[in-house]
DNA sequence: CAGTGGTGCGCAAACGTTTGCAGTGGAAAG
DNA sequence: CTTTCCACTGCAAACGTTTGCGCACCACTG
């Protein structure tokens, strides 16, 4: 269907642009069109003669080669090619330089440039687990904003291993990232310390540190939980359980706080037995916690799970014990992962604009790079309840209707 | 809960290791323990005096500073710190250098190193859409293998835009990636041309180019489709439709081929009207194609979708038209995305080890980096059928039981 | 016609490494 | 005691850019 053109691409129109260059036959130019006489720049697409004509060899063209071809100094080429300094050089020369650069297929070497300018144009992004469904949309949001700002994203997947996280953070520091965005796994995370100490701007996304010393973009976790509780209270539930997230994470901690506050707000009795924290955000843990709730003997008609993963774990435990959802027990998740609308039953959950979370974090980082002295700041994105099929009025209250 | 230690970390044990360094009071050392007299290296954790003692300032320590402190030449430091050249230098000196490096918190500058060695230690990964559920596991597989090999991953999300893809590919080339792994969106993809032309090793993952000129790791698409067909035939279906993928993608094209071959193999009549290709791998397209099939009037009892996304689109169209799945029409997907087991009904699909796909692609790239002259090679991973609730014997055949 | 100002460009240093080469010293060999 | 060799380390160049500085030239102005 198509063939890769390894040689010179005829459709680039660069050769024509070079036509009006007056090439002085500089001796050590590796490239000699008419043996130093004219400017006869036939593309010469013959593959056979590999050592003559046809400029773009494997070796990348350097600034010096462009300079030689355009008959100027490298500094002039540099200035002509950079849009900020272009005004310093004669438009005529600019044109000549650009033509030569195009002809040679010149690409700046970001490594060399970075060494001189001490900028790497790259941002490290450290995620605990790429397979967690909330991660990709956040990364997407990040990446879009960062690319827009001229950065490239160095992605590291820590895979829940502190050692790997540390190694990645170190490697990124060595790679001279200009900033780092981390979904730090745990609260007491050594990995970021050395970066922060070294003055690398760091922001967190989706989670924070307790002392708020690092800028972060987070969902309004408090509200996530209270939205769920208010929804259930509105349906008539009066005994609501909470499968909480790991209390060492800011999401788990704050959503539990939000849950308790909303319960109190609704005038419902506070019963600590109905709150059971998971050790991790997994289905298994969700199921375990739900089983614990069921076997506690304390009656309840609804569960607020700190997370969709935990919520589907609840689905499993409920099915095991013969309880129907939502007929016997309602379940609310949090995150609105993809395809939760296709679950059986479709999961009522709290949507978080993860993409916005990502771009907000990127924005914070860009600010911080611009002015490293900026005090830490939090961006809080407000969630929204999504009512689907996993919640219904409790039996008792329905019977009254 | 915890406090960030911005100053010197007392628990690093580096200061102690430095105890036996004999520091000659070199004049321009920014750091002077006892004003040139002794080696009295008290950590001196007083935050108040910010301008004295306490080595690790904001500025990253450089090789020269380590050399000065250890009283050797930079070249010796370089050799002592690199594990390959360490044998060249006196063990005593090595120890002294390492202590000095640790004391100053020295980190090599990968940019400077890269300029010298013309290695960037980074690999570009170009994805069409991070939100596509098959992408994260592939990236995870890639990343794990590449990090293991000492590389960092530069992730670019093209977001289905050829322009963006081109821009990202260019930026990565400028960043001097040592190789590129692409989930190329379309067959005639200009974006990779310039990289390949420049001699950057490139491999594809999940998709290929028709002429096989680029190494790739792909699923056995042919088998994906035939597994689905064989399963349905085994259930007794004799009239099977195919919602094909975009025919410009190798997955779409090959799965259709596999479908047709399997139909023929089973001795079923070939009817082109029962094959309708989608324009994109989306739910909407799946629904559209399914509607087209339903309105064609040609009877069928099962659908093989080229993709789970298309399959859930079929769910929608079937529900619209009042057809039950699997009672009226069975549906088989492909990819075994996460949570397909929780769909209603749980989706019978073909599992592809996407993680392995990723690590295989990484392996191919590493080979190619090692020996750029290697001929292109394909790694094909075999899929496996996962039977769930969306397939059942056709009514006709069930009635016979 | 001297003075002034501005434009355009070259020169060279610098960024932080790595590495071929050469030099030093000491030990082993003659 | 001289020679040879080896182990160790310093010297300096190079990687490809960017950028402050200064020079040359030209066009004004007075």
Strand order of the largest sheet of chain A: 2-1-3-4-5-11
Oligomer: homodimer
According to DSSP, the number of beta strands of chain A is 12
Could you tell me the radius of gyration of chain A in angstroms?
Answer: 30 Å
Principal-axes geometry of chain A comes out as elongated
Proportion in helices of chain A: 25-40%
Alpha plus pi helix count of chain A: 14
Distance from N terminus to C terminus of chain A (CA atoms, Å) equals 67 Å
User: What is the H-and-E element order of chain A?
Assistant: HHHHHEHEHEHEEHEHEHEHEEHEEH
Q: If interface size is counted as residues with C-beta under 8 Å from the partner's C-beta, which chains form the largest one?
A: A-B, 74 and 74 residues
Sequence stretches where pLDDT stays below 50 over 5 or more residues of chain A: 1-57, 397-401
Give an overview of the whole structure.
Two copies of one chain form a homodimer. Chain A has helices at 14-17, 63-70, 74-81, 91-104, 110-117, 135-148, 162-174, 193-197, 221-235, 250-265, 283-295, 308-320, 354-370, 395-400; strands at residues 122-127, 152-157, 179-182, 202-205, 216-219, 240-244, 275-277, 302-305, 330-332, 349-351, 378-381, 384-386. With 401 residues, chain A is an alpha/beta fold. In chain A, strands 2-1-3-4-5-11 form a six-stranded parallel sheet, with helices on both faces. The radius of gyration of chain A is 30 Å and the shape is elongated. Chain A starts with 13 loop residues before the first helix and ends with a helix. At the A-B interface, α5, α6, β2, α7 and α8 of A face α5, α6, β2, α7 and α8 of B. Chain A binds a DNA duplex (30 and 30 nucleotides) through α3 and α5.
